[in-house]
């Protein structure tokens, strides 16, 4: 059976995340794109554009959105929704910050 | 009360429009189910011509998004064909075994393209021009084949032919009549049209009947009745359409040429209606959307149980959607015994106008070259106006007033959708509309063939005055209404220094901009303050942030600098070793004479650079890329100048310069131009004692020949003029505007005037030197910075 992590996973220190940029984080068999937004929040989504699999962690970040580096799809990093005119969504992961440490919650699904 | 069940067969333009009308009249009253044979949401078939001509893309011609069906509670079965109607039980059956009962059934199955039953018509490479699939087939064929033959010189055939030309094919048009578009044009207009199209590169065979399509599996040519033959590896049949009535006929609905309907769009079977190209009304079958939309309106009222006059038939007008050709016709087109005509033929401007008058009433018109009067003539003819009214309106129009200002409120602006000037103006006023896009959303005007866009825009100007002017300027992106020039002016005037500040002070509509304005602002700031501006890495597109080119699989490519395309054995050995060590996917020579290492993992980039020990080749940047050179005087028997030396100097000087878009250069040592300077942003050609500098060429998306900027004597002058040109381009072009577009826009004469002015040239050179003074070799810079390495290149693995 493939390995599954359920629950909170520590992914590093808050300051280690670059501001207004994404960071690819590997958690077992998953790759997440973690964004530290300019408003201080940290968001995590799956690191794969629903269009052609672009690496979202390398996208340009604006507010709550990331623009895929391959063909510029615009994706909301909070709810995972692809913005019109394109369509689709990516998996989102809940993040928490405690004592300057960033955790993501991986759910079993 | 249970909702009535409304079923639509055919997810096309007419059927869906009827549904839209119904939803407007009585929202929430019906359970609507739509079956569509094609696997897409309703799209604008008309725009297929523009897709083929490259003006738009398939993804942009959708009329109703999937979401629209959902929002309106419509059950859509795309890719599903209705195969049977049981008119007694009021049930339809599909090819996927579904059964759906109806209270009202609308048949809107459109037409099928008519395929000539020629021997060989079933070969590979023979297609119609009707749907997305056909369109894709043609686009694919153009990639592998060269010669297209279009059978049919009507509207559709000519639009297809123009599209195929744009796709780079050689195009023959075979037409059975002795002149083109004989159903819409008279002889005179058709000849003008033919001449124009010939000058665009089309080749015509008139009065030719095809007798056979030749070839084995795939078509290789056509044979004509009169014995002639031509080669072809794509054949497009555009000889007409026939209403798609098979389903109705088999189900016992009365058909003639089309499905017979009365003024209420009812067939002879209770609760079954037909609309669109498949319907026959008063012995007329239509093939344009305007009448189909009128039918849809009548049908909607009928189904919603409203009182209405019914559909009475339509006056048609046609326009050809081929860029650079304006043709319009409506009503009667050829003279008869009892018509008189007003004819104006202006050979100088190549325009032709013919208006037919019968018993003092306007009955038809043909326009070529200038079709501005088309909509006016159409509405006059529709209402059966007197010729006097037309002549008076013409005088009014001559007073320099805009065409739309002179129109009356009832005049139709959008022929396809039957939207009048009055409707648009009141929508603009009442709903506060500001853009053509908004008018389209509200009134449907310009939603179909799009030819009336200019009129709609004129109406906006007319109605809103300056307010609209402000809105039509091309803003940087949707985040602001300001243009590039305004933003740059504000940056200078207000001394704005970083992107967020610009967005803040200039009241951006979004807090942090988007992928368009972020990099643009970062560029403008760097251009205005070359020494002070701190480059914003988060505003850089990934390639420029990481100094490598992202590939589709998320790996990167690495191109080391190789000045002038000249290398040596030692460097080649190093490159080979690095390629082995990091297991690169492919080693490839680029179009700019460099070596590309593809498939490098992001984490490996810094080590790859360290091991290479060479500067970045900037193959990823909006920046001076490469200077391609020919071997030149040192080795070539034709060479007159040291082209490699010149190229190396250019490349060393401009290395790392940020520019609005990429800049490619080429230097050759004789007019044979082996380095292809004619299609470079800057192309230098050495002649005996002279260097020619060409600018504004492009070998990519928009092929453009570079134009001569200046002829000079020395290498020093080449550097100086090139610097002046590039700096002027840096300061004035919009971000992402290639030199080819920029030079095209402002004109080479303008650029020449600037760079030939000694003082201006000196100033431009001084500012260029400033810009160049801050260059830092990016790869070594990354290697020196622990934080950059950590922030950008290291992957995190959670434990
Ligand atoms: C390239 C091109 C350019 C054109 N340019 C212009 C122009 O400039 N101006 C203009 O006015 N008109 C133009 N037209 C014509 C215009 O597109 C048509 O008149 C219009 O689309 C007809 O609408 P419709 O709904 O009757 O048929 P369609 O749009 O063809 O829709 C019918 C739909 O029903 C589906 N269908 C058929 N049978 C079944 C079944 N049994 N079950 C389920 N689905 C079924 C079909 O697959 C099709 O999708 C152009 C057409 C083409 C092809
Ligand atoms: S451009 Fe002229 S000099 Fe240069 S390689 Fe070609 S032929 Fe020789
Ligand atoms: S892969 Fe993301 S936009 Fe194409």
Automatic annotation (TrEMBL), chain A:
<protein>
    <submittedName>
        <fullName>Nitrite reductase small subunit NirD</fullName>
    </submittedName>
</protein>
<dbReference type="InterPro" id="IPR017941">
    <property type="entry name" value="Rieske_2Fe-2S"/>
</dbReference>
<keyword id="KW-0479">Metal-binding</keyword>
<dbReference type="InterPro" id="IPR012748">
    <property type="entry name" value="Rieske-like_NirD"/>
</dbReference>
<feature type="domain" description="Rieske">
    <location>
        <begin position="9"/>
        <end position="104"/>
    </location>
</feature>
<keyword id="KW-0408">Iron</keyword>
<keyword id="KW-0560">Oxidoreductase</keyword>
<keyword id="KW-0534">Nitrate assimilation</keyword>
<keyword id="KW-0001">2Fe-2S</keyword>
<keyword id="KW-0411">Iron-sulfur</keyword>
<dbReference type="InterPro" id="IPR036922">
    <property type="entry name" value="Rieske_2Fe-2S_sf"/>
</dbReference>
<dbReference type="Pfam" id="PF00355">
    <property type="entry name" value="Rieske"/>
</dbReference>
TrEMBL record, chain B:
<dbReference type="InterPro" id="IPR036136">
    <property type="entry name" value="Nit/Sulf_reduc_fer-like_dom_sf"/>
</dbReference>
<dbReference type="InterPro" id="IPR007419">
    <property type="entry name" value="BFD-like_2Fe2S-bd_dom"/>
</dbReference>
<feature type="domain" description="FAD/NAD(P)-binding">
    <location>
        <begin position="5"/>
        <end position="282"/>
    </location>
</feature>
<keyword id="KW-0001">2Fe-2S</keyword>
<feature type="domain" description="BFD-like [2Fe-2S]-binding">
    <location>
        <begin position="412"/>
        <end position="460"/>
    </location>
</feature>
<comment type="similarity">
    <text>Belongs to the nitrite and sulfite reductase 4Fe-4S domain family.</text>
</comment>
<feature type="domain" description="Nitrite/Sulfite reductase ferredoxin-like">
    <location>
        <begin position="551"/>
        <end position="612"/>
    </location>
</feature>
<dbReference type="InterPro" id="IPR012744">
    <property type="entry name" value="Nitri_red_NirB"/>
</dbReference>
<keyword id="KW-0411">Iron-sulfur</keyword>
<dbReference type="Pfam" id="PF04324">
    <property type="entry name" value="Fer2_BFD"/>
</dbReference>
<keyword id="KW-0560">Oxidoreductase</keyword>
<keyword id="KW-0408">Iron</keyword>
<dbReference type="Pfam" id="PF18267">
    <property type="entry name" value="Rubredoxin_C"/>
</dbReference>
<keyword id="KW-0349">Heme</keyword>
<dbReference type="InterPro" id="IPR023753">
    <property type="entry name" value="FAD/NAD-binding_dom"/>
</dbReference>
<feature type="domain" description="Nitrite/sulphite reductase 4Fe-4S">
    <location>
        <begin position="621"/>
        <end position="757"/>
    </location>
</feature>
<keyword id="KW-0285">Flavoprotein</keyword>
<protein>
    <submittedName>
        <fullName>Nitrite reductase large subunit NirB</fullName>
    </submittedName>
</protein>
<keyword id="KW-0004">4Fe-4S</keyword>
<dbReference type="InterPro" id="IPR041575">
    <property type="entry name" value="Rubredoxin_C"/>
</dbReference>
<comment type="pathway">
    <text>Nitrogen metabolism; nitrate reduction (assimilation).</text>
</comment>
<dbReference type="Pfam" id="PF01077">
    <property type="entry name" value="NIR_SIR"/>
</dbReference>
């Amino acid at each position: 059976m493939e390995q599954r992590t359920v629950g909170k996973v520590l992914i590093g220190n808050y300051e280690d995340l670059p501001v207004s940029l994404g960071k690819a984080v590997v958690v077992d068999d998953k790759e997440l794109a973690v964004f530290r937004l300019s408003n201080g929040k940290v968001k995590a989504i799956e690191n794969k554009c629903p269009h052609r699999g672009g690496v979202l962690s390398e996208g340009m970040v604006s507010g709550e959105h990331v623009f895929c580096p391959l063909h510029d799809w615009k994706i909301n990093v909070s709810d995972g929704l692809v913005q019109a005119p394109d369509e689709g969504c990516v998996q989102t992961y809940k993040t928490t910050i405690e004592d300057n440490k960033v955790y993501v919650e991986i759910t079993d699904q | 009360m249970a909702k009535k069940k409304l079923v639509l067969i055919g997810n096309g333009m007419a059927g869906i429009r009827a549904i839209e009308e119904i939803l407007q009249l009585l929202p929430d009253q019906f359970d609507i189910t739509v079956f569509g044979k094609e696997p897409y949401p309703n799209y604008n078939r008309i725009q297929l011509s523009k897709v083929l001509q490259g003006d738009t893309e398939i993804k942009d011609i959708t009329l109703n998004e999937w979401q629209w069906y959902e929002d309106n509670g419509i059950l859509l079965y795309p890719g599903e064909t209705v195969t049977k109607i049981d008119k007694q039980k009021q049930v339809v059956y599909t090819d996927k075994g579904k059964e759906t009962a109806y209270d009202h059934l609308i048949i809107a199955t459109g037409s099928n393209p008519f395929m000539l039953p020629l021997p060989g018509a079933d070969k590979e490479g023979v297609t119609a021009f009707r749907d997305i699939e056909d369109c894709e087939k043609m686009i694919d064929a153009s990639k592998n084949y060269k010669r297209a033959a279009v059978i049919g010189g009507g509207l559709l055939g000519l639009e297809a032919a123009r599209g195929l030309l744009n796709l780079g094919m050689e195009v023959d048009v075979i037409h059975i009549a002795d002149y083109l578009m004989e159903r819409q044009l008279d002889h005179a207009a058709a000849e003008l049209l033919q001449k124009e199209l010939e000058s665009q590169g089309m080749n015509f065979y008139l009065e030719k009947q095809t007798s056979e399509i030749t070839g084995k599996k795939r078509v290789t040519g056509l044979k004509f009745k009169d014995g002639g033959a031509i080669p072809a590896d794509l054949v497009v049949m555009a000889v007409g359409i026939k209403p798609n009535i098979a389903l109705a006929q088999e189900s016992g609905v009365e058909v003639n040429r089309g499905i017979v309907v009365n003024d209420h769009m009812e067939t002879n079977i209770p609760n079954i209606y037909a609309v669109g190209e498949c319907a026959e009304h008063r012995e007329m079958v239509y093939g344009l959307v305007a009448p189909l939309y009128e039918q849809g309106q009548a049908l909607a009222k009928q189904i919603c149980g409203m009182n209405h006059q019914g559909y009475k038939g339509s006056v048609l007008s046609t326009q050809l959607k081929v860029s650079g050709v304006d043709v319009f016709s409506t009503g009667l087109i050829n003279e008869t015994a009892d018509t008189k005509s007003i004819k104006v033929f202006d050979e100088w401007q190549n325009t032709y106008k013919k208006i037919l008058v019968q018993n003092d009433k306007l009955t038809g018109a043909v326009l070529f070259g200038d079709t501005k009067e088309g909509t006016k003539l159409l509405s006059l003819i529709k209402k059966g106006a007197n010729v006097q009214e037309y002549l008076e309106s013409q005088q009014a129009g001559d007073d320099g007033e805009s065409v739309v200002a002179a129109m009356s409120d009832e005049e139709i602006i959008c022929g396809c959708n039957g939207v009048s000037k009055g409707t648009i103006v009141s929508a603009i006023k009442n709903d506060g509309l500001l853009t053509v896009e908004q008018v389209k959303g509200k009134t449907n005007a310009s939603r179909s063939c799009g030819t009336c866009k200019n009129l709609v825009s004129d109406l906006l100007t007319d109605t809103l005055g300056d307010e609209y002017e402000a809105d039509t300027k091309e803003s940087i992106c949707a985040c602001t209404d300001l243009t590039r020039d305004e933003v740059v002016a504000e940056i200078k005037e207000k001394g704005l220094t970083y992107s967020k500040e610009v967005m803040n002070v200039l009241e951006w509509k979004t807090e942090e901009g988007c992928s368009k304005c972020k990099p643009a602002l970062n560029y403008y700031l760097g251009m205005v303050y070359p020494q002070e501006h701190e480059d914003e890495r988060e505003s850089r597109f990934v390639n420029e942030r990481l100094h490598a080119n992202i590939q589709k699989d998320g790996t990167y490519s690495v191109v080391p600098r190789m000045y002038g395309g000249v290398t040596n054995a030692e460097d080649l050995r190093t490159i080979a070793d690095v390629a082995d060590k990091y297991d690169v996917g492919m080693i490839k020579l680029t179009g700019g004479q460099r070596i590309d290492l593809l498939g490098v993992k992001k984490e490996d980039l810094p080590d790859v650079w360290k091991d290479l020990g060479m500067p970045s080749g900037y193959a990823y940047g909006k920046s001076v890329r490469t200077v391609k050179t020919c071997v030149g005087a040192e080795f070539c028997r034709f060479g007159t100048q040291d082209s490699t030396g010149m190229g190396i100097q250019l490349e060393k000087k401009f290395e790392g310069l940020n520019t609005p878009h990429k800049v490619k250069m080429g230097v050759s040592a004789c007019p044979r131009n082996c380095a292809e300077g004619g299609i470079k942003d800057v192309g230098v050609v050495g002649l005996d004692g002279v260097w020619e500098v060409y600018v504004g060429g492009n070998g990519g998306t928009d092929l453009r020949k570079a134009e001569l900027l200046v002829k000079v004597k020395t290498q020093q002058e080449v550097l100086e003029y090139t610097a002046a040109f590039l700096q002027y381009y840096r300061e004035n072009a919009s971000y992402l505007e290639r030199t080819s577009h920029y030079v095209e826009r402002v004109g080479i004469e303008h650029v020449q005037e600037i760079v030939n002015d000694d003082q201006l040239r000196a100033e431009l050179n001084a500012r260029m030197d400033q810009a160049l003074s801050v260059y830092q070799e990016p790869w070594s810079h990354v290697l020196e910075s622990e934080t950059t390495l950590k922030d950008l290149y290291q992957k995190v693995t959670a434990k």
